[in-house]
Design brief:
By secondary structure, the protein is mainly alpha-helical. The protein has 15 helices and no strands.
């Protein structure tokens, strides 16, 4: 199957949305604007659906060869992640600047985005992050270990848990339907665990069982686009299971219509690929600048939080608590600088590393 260009553009739109969502709480913006970009979690769930689709394609490309698959995924994720994470460890030692932003209320979501001070178990958490295990640790063991240092890193742990499950299922043959079914079963286990487990043993949203249904929808979408109408019933069943799981989870999590957006928006994106009436939307996603944002989307997702944190500290000191002056400089800088840093990281680190790994992959 050829690469779906519209999905590359979608990746760019999602990365920019997450970045703007991290920017908005610190600016003096009207509440309605802040609410429009407050669904960053839903955007990350969309990334998980995209990943389910991409990994299904990757497993077929490597015919289930575990070494080639792991090398390809490590070459895609680790080279950019490691330097950004190490920078975030250093930035953790610096103040956030929030003490000089008197307009940031105690209930402002920005206070959950930026953190400061060395964690009580900092060394252990660094090791967990470098091995991608931080998303598997209950809060009762290491509180907030899944988001310490670099907030975006939580989803990378979830991704690697998904890779492991996909590889285990693929050992008996690359059956994407079987992978999707296994992921739905894991998601059901996650719901049961949330209801039954004692509080100290409950796991964060970085644990695969809490996000597995989104990966399942992406895998089922790959089956749909590759086999057409014959897979429509399978896709419908997976979509229904995902919506049901989202509804159940909303009963004991923060109830929000935003939780239903990822599967609905994703299904709309699938329709873009097959319906001529939606060609203008597809053309927009395939537009050059949007495609370029898709190219740097992974780096942008990684760097936006620590870069914005540094900008915020500098501006807070410079404007001395003036909200209007802070906002005037903050909005353009908090968008333009992360994009510039991400473009450099993609060009200097991410792309050369991926090409180096690609040349060393086992022959297929």
């Amino acid at each position: 199957m050829q690469r779906v260009a519209g999905f590359d553009g979608l990746r760019g739109v999602l990365a920019v949305y997450v970045m703007v969502g991290h920017m908005a709480p610190f600016a003096g913006l009207p509440d309605w604007i802040a609410r429009l970009v407050s669904h960053g979690g839903a955007a990350v769930d969309m990334f998980f659906i995209l990943s389910g689709f991409v990994i299904a394609q990757s497993l077929h490309r490597f015919a289930g060869q575990p070494v080639a698959f792991v090398m390809a995924r490590a070459g895609r994720t680790m080279p950019a992640y490691i330097p950004v994470f190490l920078c975030a460890v250093f930035i953790q030692l610096l103040p956030t600047g929030l003490r000089w932003m008197q307009w940031i209320a105690q209930d402002n979501p920005g206070r959950a985005i930026w953190s400061e001070g060395w964690p009580a178990h900092g060394t252990a958490e660094i090791v967990l992050h470098l091995t991608m295990l931080h998303g598997m640790i209950p809060d009762g063991v290491l509180p907030d270990a899944w988001v310490s240092f670099l907030g975006a890193a939580w989803s990378l742990s979830t991704e690697w848990q998904f890779y492991l499950v996909a590889l285990l299922v693929a050992r008996t043959g690359v059956d994407v339907r079987a992978i999707a079914r296994a992921l739905i079963i894991i998601a059901i286990f996650g719901v049961i665990w949330e209801f039954a487990a004692p509080e100290p043993l409950r796991l964060s949203r970085a644990f695969l069982a809490n996000k597995a249904h989104y990966f399942a929808l992406g895998a089922a979408s790959w089956v749909l686009l590759n086999t057409g109408a014959a897979a429509a019933r399978f896709f419908g069943l997976v979509f229904g299971a995902v919506m049901l799981l989202v509804a159940i989870k909303s009963d004991f999590a923060t109830s929000s219509a935003g939780k239903f957006l990822p599967p609905i928006v994703w299904t709309f994106c699938l329709a873009i690929e097959s319906r001529r009436s939606l060609e203008p939307v597809r053309s927009l996603l395939c537009w050059g600048p949007i495609q370029w944002l898709g190219t740097i989307s992974y780096s942008l997702y990684l760097v936006n939080e620590p870069v914005q944190k540094m900008i915020g500290l500098g501006l807070a000191l410079a404007v001395r608590g003036d909200e209007a002056h802070f906002t005037a400089f903050w909005i353009p800088l908090a968008i333009a600088v992360p994009i510039a840093v991400a473009a450099m990281l993609q060009r200097v680190v991410e792309r050369p590393a991926a090409e180096w790994v690609r040349r060393r992959l086992p022959s297929r």
